[in-house]
Design a protein that fits this description.
Layout: E1 2-5, H1 12-21, E2 26-29, H2 40-45, E3 53-56, E4 59-62, H3 64-75, H4 83-109, H5 121-142, H6 158-170, H7 175-178, H8 180-190, H9 193-201
Parallel strand pairs: 1-2
Antiparallel strand pairs: 1-3, 3-4
Helix pairs in contact: 1-3, 1-6, 1-9, 4-5, 6-8
């Protein structure tokens, strides 16, 4: 498998899972901040101009939930046997990718995706801040009395939850004080050797 990633981006989630499962893989950095996802060669691979991308044989997979599911299914790990818990995991994936990432952080960091007039960017970002606060509160609530996202079992979605903790800190949120359950989840993530290896390989 070949994972195309950008340091600290949402691609960190499948990167962690590759480290967790021990699946043989290569990493190719495509730095978002340097505009590398807009270059013609990468656009041939993923016309959506986004990371992550997972290449396996002749197949190209995009989108974090799909890639994480493929890695876990291939390795036979981190997918609960109980169908309801599988649904809970997918519920997390859907909300994190579609709402917290695309809407809330998207509005915060890339308001130009929502409006064309630059004088409206500040309004979009202000609404994004409110959406982020609501989203962080939801994460905190959903982690109540559980060591991992869906319960006692570490699953595919936990590295994705960890990504957003890092992003929250990057915009100045005091996660330790304001969202202690989420902070505790992140501490458990950081104690895992696979997480440490992924962070080190991405330069953190």
């Amino acid at each position: 498998m070949i994972l195309y990633y950008s340091p600290g981006a949402c691609s960190l989630a499948p990167h962690i899972l590759l480290e967790e499962t021990g699946v043989r893989h290569e990493l190719v950095e495509v730095n978002v901040q340097q505009g590398k996802t807009q270059e013609p060669e990468f656009l041939k691979l993923n016309p959506k101009a986004r990371v992550p991308v997972l290449v396996t044989g002749t197949e190209v997979l995009t989108e974090v939930p799909a890639i994480c599911w493929y890695i876990g299914s291939t390795a036979g790990r981190f997918i609960p046997a109980d169908v309801l818990l599988q649904a809970r995991m997918l519920e997390w994936f859907n909300w994190l990718s579609g709402t917290l990432h695309a809407v809330a952080f998207g509005g915060k960091w890339r308001p130009q995706r929502f409006v064309t007039q630059a004088d409206m960017f500040r309004d979009v970002q202000a609404m994004a801040d409110r959406n982020l606060r609501d989203g962080f509160a939801h994460v905190e609530q959903w982690l109540a009395d559980k060591p991992w996202a869906i319960g006692a079992e570490y699953t595919l979605v936990d590295p994705y939850v960890f990504v957003f903790h890092n992003w929250a800190r990057s915009i100045g949120v005091d996660v330790r004080s304001d969202y202690p359950r989420w902070h505790a989840h992140s501490a458990r993530m950081l104690a895992r050797p696979a997480v440490q290896r992924a962070l080190q390989r991405e330069g953190f």
